[in-house]
Design brief:
Distance between the termini: 35 Å
Number of helices: 9
Radius of gyration: 19 Å
Number of domains: 2
């Protein structure tokens, strides 16, 4: 897998398909992105190609305004779906991206309960490594038909929140210039921990037609709140009501009809604003 990705990046740069490429390096067990512009850059030989994930789509949003030409970027299938959804919201220019599809291992797929752990044939740099995994089992309380029991479960989970905004900041689909979580009419800025359940419900509603189920919000949460279950349930409401699935449906979300089109968040400044 690593050799396949190295070869694809070097080919994209040497052929002129891309003027720059993004690679991931690992230092002190943390991933760091690095931009390379030459196929001879020795950093390519040290790129990371393991199971750890990085919010690559967020990096693309920041990079496109400040790098000329095309950018080669390794993507898992969830990354590709994010970029597809970001295109609908005018956050990226897909014509300037060279996608290098990197398939997930079965271990990653099983841990995510992912039904799409492979990349499209047209962009894949290596053969598929995993089959669709079984969905993650719901906690017993969420299997209940009693709404009071479900509410009690979520209130108990939300009580651990420390309002670090990690879920928002790691999410490539959080690109609004004016975040509802910063709206003082909705969220008390002085409330730490946050007021519950409104803090988490605001974001769940906002993500209902954007979330592609990458799970990074849950992975980064220091309080270990099962955010993936929350956003999956919100996504399901939109799918049941409108037949819309973020990152999969070709058309724009029908919920977009309820408001003004999104602005190009951060594109002029070269970074994503909060």
């Amino acid at each position: 897998m690593k050799e396949d990705l190295q070869k694809a990046i070097k080919e994209a740069l040497s052929s002129g398909k891309a003027s720059a490429a993004v690679i991931l390096l690992e230092k002190d067990e943390e991933l760091m992105p690095k931009i390379v512009t030459s196929a001879d850059d020795p950093a390519i030989d040290s790129l990371y190609a393991g199971d750890k994930r990085y919010p690559m789509a967020s990096f693309v949003v920041m990079l496109q305004p400040v790098i000329e030409g095309n950018i080669a970027i390794p993507v898992r299938e969830c990354d590709r779906r994010m970029l597809f959804e970001l295109e609908k919201h005018n956050q990226i220019d897909p014509d300037r991206l060279v996608l290098l599809g990197t398939p997930c291992t079965q271990e990653v797929a099983d841990a995510c309960g992912c039904d799409h752990p492979f990349t499209e044939n047209g962009i894949s740099v290596a053969p598929t490594l995993a089959s669709p995994a079984e969905p993650l089992p719901l906690p017993e309380a969420l299997q209940s038909e009693d709404p009071d029991e479900k509410l009690a479960f979520w209130m108990g989970e939300f009580e651990r929140c420390i309002k670090c905004y990690g879920c928002r900041n790691v999410c490539p689909m959080c690109f609004c210039n004016d975040c509802a979580l910063d709206n003082l009419d909705l969220v008390n800025a002085a409330s730490k921990p946050p007021e519950i359940p409104i803090f988490h419900l605001i974001r769940a509603v906002d993500m209902a037609d954007r979330c592609v189920d990458c799970g990074m919000c849950e992975a980064i949460c220091p309080a270990e709140i099962p955010l993936r279950h929350l956003y999956r349930q919100a996504r399901q409401v939109v799918k049941d009501a409108f037949g819309y699935e973020p990152g999969v449906s070709e058309e724009k979300s029908p919920i977009e009809m309820l408001g003004e089109p999104s602005e190009l968040a951060g594109m002029e400044e070269g970074f994503r604003t909060s």
